[in-house]
Every structure is written in structure tokens, then in C-alpha cells.
Write a structure and sequence with these properties.
elongated, two-stranded antiparallel ribbon, alpha+beta, about 20% helix, 3 helices
């Protein structure tokens, strides 16, 4: 199980970097095989540099034919996480965002929940619509013969006979 990394502990490590290898199932993320990979977290003063990779096999449902199939999920991630105090003021309803507002951030005395961070990246990489194979034609729907109301059957047979019989009024 991956444990959160405290920023204060990370600063005490050689080159302020921690490297982790993992092979485990993540709670709430259904996979056929354990998620295995590598993660490196480096403290760079005012930000964390996080990079790594993960891979597993997941079961998906084809969006065309609704059959289930297995898919190899390979994720490579690289992210900058700012280290800053959270703003004490509530955000206004209308807000003009700066680039740094769009980055994830942690307080200086906080910790990086590595398991949750990898879990989120796995979910972000899951395909939303995916065919089971490139030539999948989808669900095949058989159209039944058109139903004929039996009350009209006599009229239908009369119409057929009238079309087949020669007309008497022709010269």
C-alpha cells in the first residue's frame, strides 16, 4: 500500500527526491491485474515535480456491441504541484483565473497522497468510448416480417386475385 509522502520528510531525503515502485490493486479501481509502476517525487522549493508510469489490464464494455473485453491501460504522468498556503478568502462567483490557479497545490506542511494521485490519473486515462475491435459492427438487429392483421387477410387475398384475373372490359 502506498503511503502519503510528507513534504517535510521529502525535504530531508537525498536530493529531496523519493522514488517508489508499486504493484497493488487500488480500492475503487477495478482491474484484472495489479497496477504496477514507478513514481518519482522531487521537492523543488516552491513546487513538487511528480513523474512516473503505471500499467494494468482493465475490463471495458464495447460502446458498439456491448460485449466486454480486456484492455491494456498504460499511463505516463508528469505534473507540477505548487507548494503554497491555501487562500483564506472564499472564491467569488465570477473569478478571473491565472495559470497558477489551474495547477494543483499543497500547503507547505502538507503531504502528497500518492495512492489517490495515481488513482486519479488512472481514471483520467480510461477511454470513455472504445470499440472491442476496429471492425466491430455493433449490435445486429433483425427486423421481423411485417405483421399483417388477420382481419385484413381476406381483403389482401381478394386484392391479389383481382390483380391476377384478366379484365372482362378490355377489347
Amino acid at each position: 500500500m502506498l503511503k502519503p509522502i510528507r513534504l517535510s520528510d521529502l525535504r530531508q531525503m537525498p536530493q529531496q527526491t523519493q522514488e517508489l515502485e508499486f504493484k497493488q490493486f487500488f480500492q475503487g479501481f477495478d482491474s484484472l491485474t495489479p497496477v504496477e509502476g514507478y513514481l518519482q517525487v522531487s521537492h523543488r522549493g516552491h513546487f513538487l515535480e511528480v513523474s512516473g508510469r503505471a500499467r494494468t489490464i482493465v475490463t471495458l464494455t464495447c460502446h458498439r456491441c456491448l460485449q466486454q473485453f480486456n484492455h491494456r491501460l498504460n499511463v505516463e504522468f508528469e505534473e507540477i504541484i505548487l507548494i503554497r498556503e491555501p487562500s483564506p478568502d472564499p472564491l467569488p462567483l465570477e473569478l478571473e483565473l491565472k495559470d497558477e490557479d489551474l495547477l494543483e497545490s499543497l500547503p507547505p506542511g502538507g503531504e502528497l497522497d500518492v495512492e489517490d494521485w495515481i488513482y486519479q490519473h488512472l481514471h483520467l486515462e480510461m477511454p470513455r468510448q472504445f470499440p472491442c475491435r476496429p471492425d466491430c459492427r455493433g449490435i445486429r438487429v433483425e427486423t421481423p416480417e411485417p405483421l399483417v392483421d388477420p382481419r385484413w387477410a381476406a381483403l389482401a387475398s381478394l386484392a391479389v386475385r383481382l390483380q391476377q384475373s384478366p379484365r372482362k372490359d378490355s377489347p
